[in-house]
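note to self: dont lose this again. the chain is below, predicted strucutre after it. 164 aa total, dont forget to put it in the shared folder this time
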Amino acid sequence: MPFDLGSLRVPELMALGDQVIAELRRRDLVRTNNKPIGDVAEQIVLAARGGVLEPNSTKSHDVTTDAGLRIQVKAMGARAAGAQAKFSPFRSFDFDVAVFLVFAAETFELLEAWEAPAAAIESGTRYVPHINGRQPGLRFIRTIGADVLPEMRPAYARLDTVMG
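---
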């Protein structure tokens, strides 16, 4: 390896991963752009709120705080974050709040962070049969959500100290 990956910050590692996936696609070796952005977003919320990260098989939420708050985490890169950008769909609403994180496309710096109650997401989005769920857009989340960027940015930065 020509450089030490251990010296890179989390956003730098994610940007490098993005470049690796793009090159693998260019070579027709992979078919998707799947990235670790969702997993990292869950770690950010866990670092900010504490509690436990639920197993992947847990339906409807990703983090449970020590106080019992069930949090669903959604993330997107800024390339998709135009006015009409949509988060991945909700197929159940057995959680209390959702935290939505938006990352810069090239640098993976955290640009936006919103928190919205499950009931507001469910009542404010329409059910779409072909995706079997409700898919909120960024514009909608900005209108119903509380800005939690001041809480999430420092938690993201702490991932470097925890892992480094």
